[in-house]
Amino acid sequence: MKKNKREIPPEFQPSPDRRVGSTLYGFADNTTLISVVPKKNKAVILVSSMHHSIETGDRKNKPEIVCYYNKTKAGVDLLDMKCAIYSSSHRTRRWPLAIFYQMLGISCINSFILYILFQGNPLVTRYSFIQDLAMELIKPHMTRRLEVPNLPRDIKATIQEHIWKKGPQNQNESIPNDKLEKRKSCSKCPPAKERKTNYKCINRDKPICLECSRKLWTSCATNM
């Protein structure tokens, strides 16, 4: 732990009077605090809620807390590295949100470990697994949003595209695209109106405004 914590007694801080290799122990209710001097004027301070006695773990008479930390610190570093590779966190000043982002990263890693331990699952990369996991988590919310009556058409089309992308009944079907890359004049309206539109007829591939068009179910448009 960092040495600038005011809860640490001054005797546990680095001092030129402390002998190299010496260790100080401090015991509380369920916590043990130690201060080890590896070099002159240096001190390593650790706190543990697992060890509650003065024990040594190797031939060099290192405290058991230090030996246990050296054995397990690689796992912590590996977890931090994996969380940093595919991170879902964003910059925030709200500490509950920061903890939530960290929990998301750790949960993704733990779920992927459980997935690969089951021999019946196909082998996938962690990136693909996280993508599928995220889609399954947000799919119920997207399905609820489709029930909103005044949802904009572009948002509804995007949600339907993502929901049906992996659907078994729509694997060989594609949703017709009725959006134009550039606004054009409606082909049905009189030229004097000069009515611009962002949409096109999916059957004739011509620009058409919303006033000249009629709505269809997506399944009906797919079967045209």
Provide a brief overview of the structure.
With 224 residues, this protein is of the alpha+beta class. It has helices at 64-85, 95-117, 126-146, 153-164, 218-222, and strands at 23-27, 32-36, 44-48, 179-185, 196-199.
Description of the structure:
The chain crosses the membrane at residues 97-118. With 224 residues, the chain is an alpha+beta fold. It folds into four domains: 10-75, no CATH class; 86-117; 132-164, no CATH class; 182-222, no CATH class. It is 37% helix and 12% strand. A three-stranded antiparallel β-sheet has the order 1-2-3, with no helix packed on it. The chain is elongated and about 95 Å long.
List the helices and strands and how they pair.
Layout (H helix, E strand, L loop, with lengths): L22 E5 L4 E5 L7 E5 L15 H22 L9 H23 L8 H21 L6 H12 L14 E7 L10 E4 L18 H5 L2
Antiparallel strand pairs: 1-2, 2-3, 4-5
Protein name: PiggyBac transposable element-derived protein domain-containing protein
InterPro entries: PGBD (IPR029526)
Organism: Clastoptera arizonana (Arizona spittle bug)
Keyword list:
224 residues, alpha+beta, 4 domains, three-stranded antiparallel sheet
